[in-house]
Amino acid sequence: MDTHLLRQVQPGGGSGKLGPFDLVSSITALPRPALYAIIGVVLAAGLFFTTHKPASTPSSTPAPVQTPQAAESPTAKAGPSAQASEPKRGQDQVTPANRSQAGPAGPGLPVRIKHALDAHKVVAILFWNRHAVDDRSVKSSVDRLSRGKRLAVFSDSVRHLARYTRITAAASVSTTPSVVIVNRQGQAEVVTGYLDYETLRQYVLNALRR
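and the corresponding structure tokens:
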């Protein structure tokens, strides 16, 4: 068996040292199928890195979103004027239903009633409570009476009874509904309780005949 190492085969005129690696010569020396495969891999890698660029990282702190302020309800805050306009509990509100028809108060009588008596008219005055059913029915009957040169008709809340001292001194009013009828001679008559229109009208006709 030959134990000598094989001699290094070198091209003629060589120096016995390996020269610099020539990439172009090595690639062109490859078979065509291998060359095509390498070119395809390079193109695929370039296309991949071109189309898959890393996305920019957004800021970790989002910008604050401004929300419009809610419109303040007109009833959310009540000013002093709104509080002053609200009636206190236990006090009747002045409405067309219970407002005095006799006008401002005078000495012992409201002004309008005094003028009617001075003109020698028959005067019918209803004292009533708007919360009572019978009172509202009598009020409807009183409103149906025909006013004219000989008859004056009024209605007032029983709370204002102190304005009528000249009448209540002669005709006591203690409950509602009560209709006070004063003839042309100044004589007063009190009719208390429920009255339909026909009955009330008859009382007024009797007073007109006196």
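(Above: one complete record from the training split.) The beta strands are 122-128, 151-157, 178-182, 188-192.
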